């Protein structure tokens, strides 16, 4: 039985993914060193990796990463929490949804980076404007997924709570939060990914430190290895955050069908 359990838990997908990445990098290395592709714009991956570790040891990469993490963390919390609360309320209350939903539908399609100049006018060119732009980006995915999470709860559960005279607080904590949790965590993943994209974008436009600044400066000075190193750091940041949210989802919502262990 133990052997069967171990076999059933073995997942070949990560190994296949790693193999695909390894083969891709090996081909890239060979093409670059053989002169089939431009070394200036596509340096060998080994050279990029060496530059990555040099920047890490020197501390230059950590300075830019710290600045991006600071903006990303505050922006994600500042936008995600109101989005979560309002989304749960909109999913629970048809009246609130009827009032707020048309406003959300009108504002949500606007590209968030397009309103960054207006945010600069209101909040200035300091850190506040960058954090607000990131918060706006994180707000909408969290709101929409939280609202959808509440709306997909079976109405029978609400009828049972009403029949037993449960208070609003108990309905909220015993039905709404557990029932919407999987969608809320999915919204957190989407919100973080979009917030990261906007964080890099606003740093490209108006910042002195951050991964976006590093990307743009590396391109302007044709330090292509540093450009790739900053892109790798951005990718690792996104992967780490998504992995952390996924592990939290597995612990808090083990019944959710989207868990990797339950996929066929």
Could you explain the architecture of this structure?
The protein has 264 residues and is mainly alpha-helical. The protein has a single domain (55-262), classed as MetI-like (MetI-like fold). It has 11 helices and no strands. The protein is globular, with a radius of gyration of 23 Å. 31% of the residues are buried. The model is unreliable at 1-8 and 259-264 (pLDDT under 50).
Entry keywords:
264 residues; mainly alpha; MetI-like fold; 11 helices; globular; disordered N terminus; disordered C terminus
What are the secondary-structure elements, in order, as H or E?
HHHHHHHHHHH
User: What helical percentage do the residues reach?
Assistant: over 70%
Evaluate the radius of gyration.
23 Å
CATH homologous superfamily label: MetI-like
Biggest sheet features: none
Estimate the global geometry from the Cα principal axes. Answer: globular
In short:
It contains eleven helices and no strands.
Topology:
Layout: H1 2-9, H2 13-34, H3 45-58, H4 60-92, H5 94-107, H6 116-123, H7 127-151, H8 155-163, H9 168-205, H10 211-220, H11 224-252
Helix pairs in contact: 3-11, 4-5, 4-7, 4-9, 4-10, 6-7, 7-9, 9-10, 9-11, 10-11
């Amino acid at each position: 039985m133990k052997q069967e359990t171990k076999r059933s838990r073995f997942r070949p997908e990560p190994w296949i993914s790693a193999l695909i990445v390894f083969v891709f990098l090996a081909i890239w290395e060979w093409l670059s060193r053989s002169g089939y592709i431009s070394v200036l714009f596509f340096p060998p991956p080994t050279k990029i990796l060496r530059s990555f570790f040099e920047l890490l040891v020197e501390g230059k990469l950590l300075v830019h990463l710290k600045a991006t993490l600071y903006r990303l963390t505050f922006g994600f919390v500042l936008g995600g929490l109101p989005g979560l609360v309002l989304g749960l309320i909109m999913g629970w209350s048809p009246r609130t949804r009827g009032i707020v939903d048309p406003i959300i539908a009108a504002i949500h399609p606007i590209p968030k980076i397009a309103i960054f100049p207006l945010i600069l006018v209101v909040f200035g060119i300091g850190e506040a404007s960058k954090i607000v732009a990131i918060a706006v980006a994180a707000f909408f995915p969290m709101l929409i997924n939280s609202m959808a999470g509440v709306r997909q709860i079976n109405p029978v559960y609400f009828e049972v709570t009403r029949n037993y005279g449960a208070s609003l607080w108990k309905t909220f904590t015993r039905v709404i939060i557990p029932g919407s949790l999987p969608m809320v965590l999915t919204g957190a993943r989407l919100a973080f990914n979009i917030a990261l994209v906007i964080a890099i974008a606003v740093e490209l436009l108006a910042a002195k430190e951050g991964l976006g600044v590093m990307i743009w400066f590396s391109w302007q000075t044709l330090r292509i290895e540093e450009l790739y190193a900053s892109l790798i750091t951005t990718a690792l940041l996104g992967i780490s955050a998504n992995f952390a949210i996924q592990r939290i989802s597995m612990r808090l919502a083990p019944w959710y069908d989207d868990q990797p262990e339950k996929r066929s």
